[in-house]
Amino acid sequence: MRQSAGATPDADADARVLGRGMASWYDEPQMTASGERFDPSQLTAAHRTLPFGTRVRVTNTRNGRSVIVRINDRGPFAKGRIIDLSKAAARTLQMIDAGVAPVELSRP
Fold first, then answer.
1. pTM of the predicted model, to two decimals?
2. What is the pLDDT of residue 3?
3. Is 45 exposed, middle or buried (0-12, 13-18, 19+ CB in 10 A)?
4. DSSP secondary structure string, 47-69?
5. How far apart are the C-alpha atoms of 106 and 17, rounded to whole Å?
6. Which residues contact 72 (CB under 8 A, 6 or more apart)?
7. Phi and psi (nearest 5°) for 92?
8. 6-56 pLDDT, tens per residue?
9. What is 15-106's CATH superfamily?
């Protein structure tokens, strides 16, 4: 990857970060805000403001595991959460039992 003059690898990484906070997961059948049927076996997520179709890397900061999800719903609606993941995404991050996990959101 080419860097511009004066750019550092850390600065490039910081530019990709979209947020940090707590993630939760859900698996109840429902229609999503984007109009598609929610499928808990797909790697999807709900975010309050990112456009539908946006792909986001979600990294569990407790264990370093990451997954790329597609935003297809709105939420989370619980205070203190920044993203709601499908069950498949939560399984990949190994956060099913805990229910929530600290995460970092970044551009893939």
1. 0.85
2. 44
3. buried
4. -SSSPTT-EEEEEETTT--EEEE
5. 4
6. 32, 33, 34, 36, 38, 44, 45, 46, 52, 53
7. -60, -35
8. 555 555 566 799 999 999 999 988 899 999 999 999 999 999 999 999 999
9. RlpA-like domain (2.40.40.10)
